[in-house]
Design the sequence.
């Protein structure tokens, strides 16, 4: 096969979409396929300028120019999206050949539309890798334009690119149901869950230098790892931290970034039991993810079926119980309750939060080992080798 993939971030960037695409691309290249990745020159979490052309582990990487205003302001972010979109589509047009497979992820939003147009012109086959569904996510997060004329127009274009694709990969069954509602043929949709770094493994607290550095003296540490964006309800996460101030020996640990970290920074400044740390490189993820005793995963109930928190896979690999804040009837909550690796907090019942967390912390010495073992057992289903084998089979079937 010759595969051309497009996503705004790629290795060595630490963002989840960059790591997932790098794992798949490198596995395909190692298997003898010709792989080209079109991405941006900037990094998600650091101000660095990456080379325009390089080969990484057999993958040809083409990095296009874009503005770099960052995520602080909406206008700047939109300009970053637009400039990358334009240069990426032009690069796709001159790179893609007849019969190629074009993999379009969902950063920036709507990139599937440009990729679909290029695939149609070049007689290539489009594969959409749906990490989320836009503009539905924007509408779910309260952006009024997404539910108006503009949103309906974007949805119509996006749906056309989904129906015109040879294959659409989604992360769970609710997301598949959304695509079916959009008129996508069932045989053109496959549920292919994400995965985490294959090297992630549990590290005991007494052997973990990051646990000593970030949470020395704490009886119990609840961690949050990765992006804390609008879909992860930063205000409710901050309210959860506030509600549990009285839980004896509890410390919160937030590792990563995102718009919601400003709320966490302000909490830390009020002398709340909160520690903050930046994104960690891949080689330290076992230590970072093993530092907490429990991991918080949050998702706005309005985003169920539109997003699947990718941080869940790393938490399971690290063998840590999950405290989920979101929809108790949603896909993550069902995973937790079916396989027994954590506790669910209903996002709309804050009066219950403090007591449930206090109970979880108190019972951790007795129940923690069983939940940790259940997490590792569930990780096997999402193991990287299995996930990439599913992807390779799906692509080869085209």
Sequence:
């Amino acid at each position: 096969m010759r595969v051309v993939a497009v996503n705004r971030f790629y290795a060595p960037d630490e963002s989840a979409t960059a790591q997932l695409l790098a794992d798949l691309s490198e596995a395909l290249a190692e298997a003898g396929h010709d792989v080209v990745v079109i991405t941006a020159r900037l990094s998600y979490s650091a101000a660095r300028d990456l080379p325009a052309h390089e080969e990484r582990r057999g993958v040809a990487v083409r990095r296009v120019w874009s503005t770099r205003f960052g995520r602080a302001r909406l206008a700047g972010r939109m300009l970053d999206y637009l400039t990358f979109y334009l240069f990426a589509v032009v690069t796709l047009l001159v790179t893609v050949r007849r019969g190629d497979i074009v993999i379009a992820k969902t950063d920036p939003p709507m990139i599937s539309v440009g990729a679909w147009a290029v695939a149609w012109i070049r007689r290539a086959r489009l594969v959409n890798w749906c990490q989320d569904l836009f503009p539905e996510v924007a509408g779910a997060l309260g952006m009024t334009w997404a539910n108006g004329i503009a949103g309906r127009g974007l949805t119509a274009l996006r749906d056309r690119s989904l129906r015109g694709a040879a294959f659409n990969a989604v992360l769970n069954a609710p997301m598949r149901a959304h695509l079916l509602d959009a008129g996508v043929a069932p045989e053109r949709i496959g549920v292919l869950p994400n995965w985490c770094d294959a090297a992630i493994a549990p590290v005991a607290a007494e052997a973990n230098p990051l646990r000593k550095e970030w949470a020395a003296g704490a009886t119990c540490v609840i961690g949050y790892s990765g992006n804390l964006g609008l879909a992860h309800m930063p205000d409710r996460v901050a309210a959860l931290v506030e509600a549990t101030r009285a839980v004896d020996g509890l410390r919160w640990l937030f590792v990563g970034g995102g718009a919601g970290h400003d709320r966490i920074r302000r909490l830390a400044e009020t002398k709340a039991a909160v520690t903050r740390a930046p994104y960690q490189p891949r080689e330290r993820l076992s230590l970072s993810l093993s530092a907490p005793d429990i991991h918080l995963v949050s998702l706005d109930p309005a985003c169920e079926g539109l997003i699947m928190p990718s941080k869940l896979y790393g938490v399971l690999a690290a063998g840590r119980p999950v405290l989920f804040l979101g929809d108790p009837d949603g896909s993550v909550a069902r995973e937790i309750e079916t396989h027994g690796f954590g506790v669910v907090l209903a996002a709309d019942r804050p009066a219950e939060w403090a007591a449930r967390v206090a109970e979880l912390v108190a019972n951790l010495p007795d129940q923690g080992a069983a939940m940790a073992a259940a997490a590792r057992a569930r990780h096997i289903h999402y193991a990287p080798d299995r996930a990439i084998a599913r992807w390779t089979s799906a692509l080869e079937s085209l």
Summary: The chain has a mean pLDDT of 94. Residues 205-382 form a domain with the Rossmann fold fold (CATH 3.40.50.2000).
